[in-house]
Amino acid sequence: MFRSKYKTQKRVLRKRYLIYVDGQTEIWYFNLLREYEKISNFVIEPKLPAARKLSDKAELIEEQSKIYDKVFWLVDMDSILNDNKESEFRRYYLKLKRLKNVKVYVNSPCLELWFLIHYKNVSKYFPSCDKVIKKLKDVPRLKDYKKSWKYYYGSKNIYEKLKSKQINAINNAERLGDFDIEYLSETKAEIYKIITFFLDINKF
C-alpha cells in the first residue's frame, strides 16, 4: 500500500480573542498595536464607541465569552466614578471575574495614565483624566497630545512614538499593583496585562 513520505499534520486552530473597550482612544490604540506588532487574532469591540449601560456591557461580555477563547474588558475608572456607578460596576466585576476566560482590567483614571508612565513613575491619584493630560503635556514628546484621530495616527503614530519606552511603562504599571474592587480611587494601568499577553503569544 502506498504511503506518503510526508507526515499528515493536524490542523491547529488559532485561538481568538476579544478586547472590549469603553472609548474611541482605546480603539485607536489597540488598532495601532495590532498593525505595529503584526497581531491578527484579536477583535476590538465595539467597532465604534457606543453609549451602553453597564448591564448591557456585562451581558454582552458574558455572551462573547462563549465564542472567544479569552475576553478582555478594559474599563476607564473615571467614567464609573463620574456616573456614580460604583456599586453596579462592583456587582458586574465580581460576576464576570468568576468566568475563567474573562479578564476585567482597569485604567484609573483613564488610558492617558498608561501614556504618562512611559516617561514618569507616578503613584499619586489623579481625580480626573484632565489632570493626567495636563501632566502628560509636561513630557516634551507628548506636549501636543490630543484625543484626536489626527494625533493618534500622525506621521509617527502614538504607538510607534511610545514603543521605545514600553518596557519602562510596563515596569511602572506593575509597581502600581493590581486593581482592588474595594479601593476604586487608586492609580492603576492594567492595560499592560493585555499588551504583554499579546506580545508574549506573538513570540511563537
Ranges with pLDDT <50 over ≥5 residues?
1-12
Distance between the termini: 38 Å
Q: Note the beta-strand portion.
A: 5-15%
Largest sheet features: 5 strands, mixed
Supply the number of helical segments: 10
Cα shape: globular
Helix and strand sequence:
EHEHEHHEHHHHHEH
With strands numbered from the N-terminus, the spatial order across the biggest sheet is 2-1-3-4-5
Report mean pLDDT, rounded to a whole number: 90
Count of separate structural domains: 1
Structural class: alpha/beta
Strand runs, count: 5
The helix content, as a percent range, equals: 40-55%
Structural notes for this entry:
The chain has one domain. The protein has a 5-stranded mixed sheet, sandwiched between helices. With 204 residues, it is an alpha/beta fold. The N terminus is likely disordered. Helix 1 links the parallel strand 1 and strand 2. Helices cover 44% and strands 12% of the residues. The protein is globular and about 45 Å long.
Overview features:
204 residues; alpha/beta; 5-stranded mixed beta sheet; 10 helices
Short description:
This protein has 204 residues and is α/β, with parallel strands linked by helices. The protein has helices spanning 24-37, 54-64, 77-82, 86-97, 111-116, 129-136, 149-152, 158-163, 166-176, 191-201, and strands at residues 17-20, 42-45, 70-76, 102-108, 188-189.
Secondary-structure map with pairings?
Layout: E1 17-20, H1 24-37, E2 42-45, H2 54-64, E3 70-76, H3 77-82, H4 86-97, E4 102-108, H5 111-116, H6 129-136, H7 149-152, H8 158-163, H9 166-176, E5 188-189, H10 191-201
Parallel strand pairs: 1-2, 1-3, 3-4
Antiparallel strand pairs: 4-5
Helix pairs in contact: 2-4
